[in-house]
Each structure stands twice: as C-alpha cells, then as structure tokens.
Queue: 3 jobs
Job 1
Amino acid sequence: MADYGHILFERRGDVAAITLNKPDRLNAAAPAMFEEIGQALDRLDGARAVLISGTGRAFCSGADLSGGGSGAADDPGEATYRALTGSYNPTMEKLAELPVPVVSAVRGPAAGIGCSLALAADFCVATSGAYFLQAFVNISLVPDGGASWMLPRLIGRARAAEMMMLGERIPADKAHDWGMIHGVVAEDQLEAESMRLAERLAAGPTRALGLMRRQLHRALQTDYAAAMRGEAESQREARGSSDSVEGGRAFLEKRKPRFTGA
C-alpha cells in the first residue's frame, strides 16, 4: 500500500483501489486529496481497472478548503479558483482520459466535488442509504468539478436544473431511476459488489474498453459523422490488439476468451 496523507492506494490483483481516507471529516476533499488521487492515477503500473471509494460512512462530503494551501490572505474567490484550476480540475481531467475503466462505490453522501468524482466513473454503485447532492445554491455558489457538463448529459437539463438550483438530496434509488448511476446494493454488499464489477472489467479487453471510454467522452462533444469517424479510428486500433485476436479465436472455438489487456 502506497503512503499518502489523504487517500489509501493499493493494488488488488488487476484493480487499483483508491480510497478517500478522511473519515473524521466525511472524506471532505482538500486540494491535496485530489492531488494525491492524480498521483495515484499516474501510478497504475499495469492495473486494468480502478475502484474509487471512501472510508467510514461517507464517500465524500464535498470540497474542504479549510486546510489552506491557497494563501490565507487571498481573496476567497481567487483562492477557490486556484484550488479548482490547480488541484481539482486537473485530476478530474486525468480521470476522464484514463485508458482503463473506473468504478466508484458510494456510501452516504457524495456531495459537491465528491458527487462529480463519483459520477465521473464509468459505473457508480451506491448503497440504498447513499445520496447525491449539489448543495452549492444553499451557500450562493455554483457547481464545479465538471458537474455542469456532466449532469445534463447523464440525466437531462430539467433534472440537472433540479439538482443544481434546488440543492436537494437525490437518494440512491432515485438516482438509479434517473439513469445517473449503475446500481443500488445493500449496505453490507457495497465492497463485494463494486469489487466484483471492477474485477470483471479488469478481466476484459483493456485496450478496447479504454477506447470505448474515449469514444463515449468524445461522442458527448461532437456530431454524428465525427463520432462515426472516431469509431472507425478506434476500431482500427482495437482490431490490431492481441485481445482482439484472442476474442476471435475464442468465438470460433466456442469458449470463453482469456483477455490479457494487450
């Protein structure tokens, strides 16, 4: 297990597990926490999937700027801007560009930047008692961490407006009904079910899954014809992989493929 101050980071087979580790503050995310997440993402060392979770009774209760780091004499708005552009946003961008699939496991609140982090995963699994919250309106601030880009694409403009402008909790079951998250599990099943999903993805054709992530991200920003051109480029790359050869062989031999990530 690598030594960090705000997170835990370890390899569990082919899965890289990142755990937010400030349970006494409901895993409130100081800029340093996101910097450490970014450092961990740079150290995957061949991991074929990432699992992000939190210790204790929360996934993440939002940003924590109380620890300073932006200069005590700064204007608060400027300090927040610096924290976002220097710490939070670079890690969110790095997460979006990862060439391997990502699972998030949510217990309790996923609020503010924590909501953005949870929903940035390809698959978000939550307990029945979890909830998602954009509470910025309650303190006269605006959503960040990519939420204003992400939410309308996940749940549509009207529901995104509800989350952002009313600032009310969205329980896990409602989030699932909206199509915002992958699934809801019992409290005592979160670790097992999220790891099972991460391990399933880690055993898949890693290059193809990474290309799918890239295509999904690009497709949200481009037109139909450009999306198809991107698919063709990705298909060319995927077709040249060893896993593609193995997949074709397994199909012909009527057996389960053995993907290696190559």
Job 2
Amino acid sequence: MRRRTFVQGAMAALLCNRADAQATSQPAVASLAPTGRIRVAINYGNAALAVRDAATGKLSGVSVDIAEELGKRTGLPVTLVPFDAAGKVSAAVKSDAWDVAFLARDPERAREITFTAPYVVIGGNYVVRKDSPLTNVAQVDSDGVRIAVSTQSAYDLFLSRTLKHAQLVRGGTTPQAIALFLSARYEAVAGVKQAMQQFAAGDPTVRMIPESFMEISQAMCTPAGRDPGSAYLSTFVESIKANGFVAQALIRNGQADASVAPPL
C-alpha cells in the first residue's frame, strides 16, 4: 500500500512539473516521445545552428539549446541524434531515426515532414573565386556556371526549382561541396551564410558574394502524421520566439547575423 502511494505521488509530481513547464497532453507526449525519450536530430552541418566538437563529439549551438529547453518544458528526457547534413536528416525520417528535428521549411520535405512556423531566418550565399567576374546573385545564374551544393540541403532544393541557366553539382555535405568546388574548379559554391563566411575568411583565394540568394526559414518539425506532437511544437516555437529565448540563444552562440523569425 505504501509503495503504491509512493508511485502515485511520484507520477503526480512528474505531471505537475510538466504542467508548470508547459501543458503537455498525453497524446502530445506519446507523439513526441514514442520510445519514452525525445530523439532530436541535430544537423551540425549547419554552422549557424549547431557545431560538433571534433575531439569529443559534443554537440552545441542554437539547436541544442532549444532541444534542451523542449526537454525542460515537457519533462521528457532528450537524446541528441547527430547528422552532418540536412539532407541526411530529412532522408532519415523514413527509418524512424528521430522524433523532432530542426530543418529549413521546404515543400519537397513537407511531403513526409510536418513543420512549425520558422524560429530563425538565415541567408543562403555564394562563394566564388577571388578573380571571378561574378559579383551578384543574378550573374551566378548564367550558362556555363557550375554551383557546388550539399545534397538535398534547403538551398539545393530551392536552387533546383529556381535556377534557369546555371548547373548544380551535388557534393554530399557542405565541407564536401566546398572541397568539390576547389578541386574541380567550379565557378561557385552555395551554402548557409555563416558557413560561407567562415570558408571565405579562411581562404584568401575566394570571396563571398554579400547578397543572399535566398532566405532560409529554419523550423522545428516532426515526421508527418504525429499531429499532437506537431501542434505542441508549434505552440512551443511561438513561445520561445516571444519570450526572447531564441534571440538569446543566437547571441550566446555567436550567431547575431541570424534573425528571429516574426511571430505568426
């Protein structure tokens, strides 16, 4: 009898803690954490939102901060699942590898993934060679221009729909796309602004075109069909935009160039 009372008390305390953090319905819990833990995909290939320590494998960054806050709000344990490219995150939805992810919104991805509104907006930019005649975004979309991109990234999907003349060459992850651009002497490489800035700052033979070719709307998401979890995430995202959490995470992680997405 005493043991049953203890267990009931512990369950009540857990539910109380969850309610204090943010009301989490049982369907939302089951949807977000069908294994008992929220498996959160972290794409450390996007330098603006996450990084992975090469020596320890430790993940950090804006996405990690938000994942940890999600765990606090729900009262559920969080497991971070690392990926080195966004295309690999979206592909892994087919194998039930994650419950929540951070990805750029895209209609192609939305066939299998349900997105919240954006929480952050970042630029997509080109890097070209120092002596390249290309100086603006419009010039890049020209006959004979080859652009290296990370496979199935947001900018790969966007450029696949919008380019009229230039040719895309897919190179796996962002570092692989950069290596391909350099080794094959392609005319441009596309990527997240922060990654392109980093590349240009470390290589005197290249420069970044300052004008962004797209705005990348980063959102949280779940596999399609998990409606209670998706609804919870939508409320969560609006809350962390409104209370300053996202803005503080950007500053804390040295990403002041990125912008908090406007509220719904």
Job 3
Amino acid sequence: MEFLAVQLLNGISYGLLLFMLSSGLTLVFSLMGVLNFAHASFYMLGAYVAYQVSSYIGFYPALVIAPLLVAGIGMLVERFGLRKVHRYGHVAELLFTFGLAYLIEEAVHLVWGRAAVEYRIPGSLDGPLFEVFTSEYPTYRVFMMLVSVAMLVSIWLALTRTRIGLVIQAALTHPQTVEALGHNVPRVFMLVFGGGAALAGLAGVIGGNAFVTEPGMAAAVGPIIFVVVVVGGMGSLAGAFIASLLIGCLQTFSVGLDWMVPWLGITVAQSAPVLPYLLMVLILIFRPRGLLGTREN
C-alpha cells in the first residue's frame, strides 16, 4: 500500500510536469498546425535561464523571469523565423524547428558548457513535507504539483473567461472570420507561440532542479512530449492532460517494479523507457485519432 501511494504521488507530479510541456505544444499545433520540434529546447532554455537568474537574485524571481524571457524568445522566433517559412508549407516549418533545436543546443554549449550545472532546489523547499506511511514525501514534489495545477487553471480561465482567449479559440477553427472582424491573427499566432514557449520554460524552471540541468535534457524529454500529444489526440488539451497523467504513472510505477517479463528475460523496470512508445503504437493501431482527438473529414 505504501508503494502504491508513493508511486501514485510521484506519477501525478511527473505527469503534471509532462502536461505543462505538452500543453504548449498542443496549443501551438491547434492554432498554427505547426509540430514544433524545438519545443523541448525551450524547456531546456527555461532551466538554464532559471539557473542563471537564481544564482543572482534567487529561485522565486527566476520562477517569473525565466518563462517571460523564454516567451520573448519564442515570439521573436515566430515573428522573424517561422512566419517567413510558413508560406512554404509544413515540411519547411518542420525543418525550421528541427534546425532551431540544434541552434539552441549549440548556444547552450557556448554559454554554459557541456557539463551539467548545479541548479539546485531552494533551501525553503528542500526536505520532507509529510509522511506517507513510513516514507517522507519531498516538499518540492508538492510544490511542482501546485505550480502545475495553477498553470492548468490559468490556461482554462484564460481560454474561457477572457477576450483574448475567445479570440484564440475562434482563430483555431475560423481564422479568416476572426481576421474579417478586425483582429490581428498573425499577432495572435505570435502570442500563442510565445505562450507555448513560456509554458515549456516554466516546466524547465521547476523540472530542471528536480531532475538535472544539462545540454541533453531536451533530447531526453522531447520524444516523451510527442508521445503525450499523440496519445492524447493531436490538438486536444484535455487529451494531453489525461495522456500526461497516464504516461507519468505508467513510467513511475514500472520503474519501481522488479518483476521479470516472461520470454524477454528483463524486468519491468528495465523495460520502463519503452512502455510509453508501446502505448503510443497501440493507440495508433486501435484509436488513431488519440484518446480525445477528433477525426478529420
């Protein structure tokens, strides 16, 4: 029972972090039809910028400053890069974001080097918060969940209770009509792309010190983000949320199991990295549009 409770909490916290990452990618894909291969690189930028800012003025200012800086970089990328290649189709957009990921990684190498940096959990959040049976549960894990839930509520309120949210939702399906009503649709695209980058940057701020901040972190988490988006359904925020929790719990529980897999000669823990991709293959076979995706006509 203790194992189940602890792993469930860990799975939820990791799943919420995955949702923070995948939500930005889902929003960008829903509005612009762009599958941003550089999305995980914004996550890495958020972690590195937070490390730099926190070394000067502390972690809590970095929690605000780093996502805003990453959002600014994202808007510049959309305005002066992605918008230029949009006219050439999706292949050009994919190649642009693919190359951008390499540019960001090389920029990180130049500024911070190739070794991991000492981006640590702040002292006020270090240590146990409560006990689960006989195990102490870290304060920072709870903090990660609270930030993720606050982000989720903020996205919902922004999309459903604000004017810009209504414009964004309308632009998802009827961009020509929105533009005819006098709204600047390209500016909406830029803001949404910047918002997606900000969400990835925020995930980097709270995930970089919980795990590790090093140049390979984007490559490590990038494939999982795309698995979440595919399993949840391309363009579905609700689907991405369910898929994030499902994959977070799947990986967390499997890592802690030493059961031997019949006929393979390996344990469940050893096969844990492959399980999300196996889930994606099964989803594509039996439900190609994803858990909550809509079938295109």
